[in-house]
Amino acid sequence: MVVTEKPNKPTELQDFINDFQALLWRVEVTKARIDYLNEWTVKSLGNRTKRLLKDPELRKEIILEEDLHLFDEFMDKVKQGRRASVVFRANSPEGAVIWLKLIGTPSSRDPRYYSGFLLEVTDTAQSVSSMLEKAQLAQVTIERADYPVLLLDFEDKKVVAVNSEALALFGYSLNEFRSLGLGDLYYPLSMGEINNINEQVLFERQWSGGLQLLRKNREPFLAEAAVRLINHKGRRLLRLSLLRIRQNEEARWEGGAPGQAKAKRPARDRIGQELKEKLRGLTEIHDILEVFLDNPLDGVPCEGILFSDIYAKKGKVVVYHAGEVFQSMKQGEVFSYKGTIAENIERFKLDHLIVDETTDSIKAIDWALFIPKGIRSYFAKAFYTRGGMRTVMILCSTKPSSFSASQLMQYTKLYKPFEQGVLNWRKAKRKK
Fold first, then answer.
1. pLDDT tens sequence across 58-114
2. What is the dihedral of CA 389, 227, 186, 344, to 10 degrees?
3. Fold of domain 266-431
4. CB 343: neighbour CB atoms within 10 A?
5. Where are the domains of the chain?
6. Which of 230, 181, 240 is nearest to 205 (CA)?
7. What percent of the chain lies above the pLDDT cut of 90?
8. Can you tell me the mean pLDDT for 327-347?
9. CATH of domain 133-247
C-alpha cells in the first residue's frame, strides 16, 4: 500500500501569495493602517509601488492628473468599507504611461479589515484600446455601408459627413448637407425626439427606434434608425444609420416647396376635432381625463391617464387621474417635485419621456406612484405656459414597452385637445 503524504496547506498558501503577480495588501480601517502580504512590485515603479498606496504626494507626482480623482474615489470606498475597483494611468520613471488596476473588498469575517490587490494592466489596456480604435474606424468609414449613414457632431448635432446612400435618400448635395443639423431633417412635430435620443445616448452610448424625417422637397418618410456615440480623433460623433425606409402616408408637411400642393392630415384633424367636441362644456378634471381614456388611439394601449399640475417653484406636483388602476388614489394627490417626471423632463430639456419598464427606474415617483399601481410603462408629454412647465400628460399601461418613439405621430393627436381640456378646467377653477 502506498501512503500519500498530505500537502502542507499553510506552506502552499504562503507560496501562492508570494508568487501572485500582483501586490496583495490589507488595510486595518479603524486605524487607517496598511500592510502588505507579499513583495511583488510594478517593474517600472520598483520600491515606489508600495508607497503609491500610502503617500498622497507621490500619487500626485506619478498618477495622471485627470485620473487622480479615480484613485481618491477608490480610497473613499475603502474607508467606507465598500467593494471597489478602479483602473488608472501613471507615469513611469522612463516617461512611459502605464495602466494600473486596484481591486478591494471588505473582510466577510472581520469588518475592521479591508484587503485587495494592485496589478499592472498596461498590455491589456493597449490591446483593448487598439480594438476600440479599429472598431471606431470601421464605424466612421461610412461609405462601406449599403444603407444611408450620417455622422453628426454630438454637441450641436450638425452634419459632419454623409455617405452616397444618404445623399440619394434626402436629395441634398454634399455642400447643402454641411450646413444642416439633425433638426433640419426632422418632421417638425417630433423635434423633441432629438432630446430623447440625446439623453439615452449619454447614458447608454446608443439608441434605436423609429424616426420621422424629411427629404429636401419636404416629403416625409419613416425609418428604423440606430444611433451610436463614437469617439474619433478626440471628437464625439453620432453615427446615424437608417434602415427599413418607408413612405409616411399620414404625415404631410404643409409648408412644402414652391408650387407643391399643400396636403392635409385628415386623420389627425378628425381625431383632434372629435376629442374637442366631446370635451366641450366639461370642467371637472376627472370627466376631462375620462374622455381621453374612453377614446384611445389605434394601437396605443392605455389603461390609465394622469394629469400632473406642476408647481416647480413650490417643489410639488398635484396629480389627477382616470382609470381603474388609479381608483384607490385620491384626486389631487400631492407629490414632491423632486424625483418626478416633470423634474426629469426639465433637467434634460426633453419634449417627452418614454419609460419602457418602471421597475428598472431610479426615479422616486415611479416607486411611489406607478409601481404600486401596477404601471409598467408610460408616455409623458410636457406642456408649457409662458415659458414654464405647468402640465404633464401621462399615458399609462400595465404592460412593459407599450409606448414607442415610432408612434410619436399618434400621440401628437392628443396634444391640443389635452391642453384645451386642462385650460377649461383651470378657467373653471379660477371662477370658483
1. 888 999 887 888 888 888 888 888 888 888 889 988 888 889 999 999 988 888 889
2. 0
3. Beta-Lactamase (3.30.450)
4. 20
5. 9-120, 133-247, 266-431
6. 230
7. 26
8. 88
9. 3.30.450.20
At 4, give phi and psi (nearest 5°): -95, 125
Chain centroid, CA 236 distance in Å? 16
**Superfamily of 9-120 according to CATH:** PAS domain (3.30.450.20)
Between residues 252 and 320, which one has the greater pLDDT?
Answer: 320
Beta carbons of 36 and 24 less than 8 angstroms apart = yes
Map grid coordinates 506619478 to a residue: 62
Which residues lie below 8 Å from residue 341, measured CB to CB, with a gap of 6+?
308, 353, 363, 365, 380, 392, 394
- Alpha carbon distances (Å) from 294 to 106, 290, 291, 297, 301: 56, 6, 5, 10, 12
Cell reading at 85 = 475597483
Q: Residue 393's beta-bridge partner residues?
A: 307, 381
From 184, 243, 251, 239, select the one nearest 209 (Cα to Cα): 243
Q: How far apart are CA 399 and CA 268, in angstroms?
A: 26
Q: Each residue of 359-377: pLDDT tens digit?
A: 767 677 888 899 899 999 9
Of 422, 153, 203, residue with least CA distance to 305? 422
Contact 310, 342 (CB under 8 A): yes
> What Cα–Cα distance (Å) separates residue 40 from each residue in 123, 259, 266, 338?
18, 79, 76, 50
190's grid cell: 417630433
Rounded CA-CA distance 312/382 in Å is 13
Q: Are 401 and 425 in contact (CB under 8 A)?
A: no
Task: Please write the tens of the pLDDT for every residue from 259-291.
Answer: 333 334 444 567 888 898 999 999 999 999 999
pTM above 0.85, yes or no: no
What share of the chain has pLDDT > 70, as a percent? 84
Q: Do domains 9-120 and 133-247 have the same CATH topology?
A: yes
Nearest Cα residue to 242 out of 300, 313, 168 = 168
| Helix (H) / strand (E) containing 200 | helix 192-204
pLDDT at residue 24 in the model: 92
Q: Between β-strands 97-106 and 113-120, what pairing exists: parallel, antiparallel or unpaired?
A: antiparallel
Q: How far is CA 319 from the centre of its chain?
A: 26
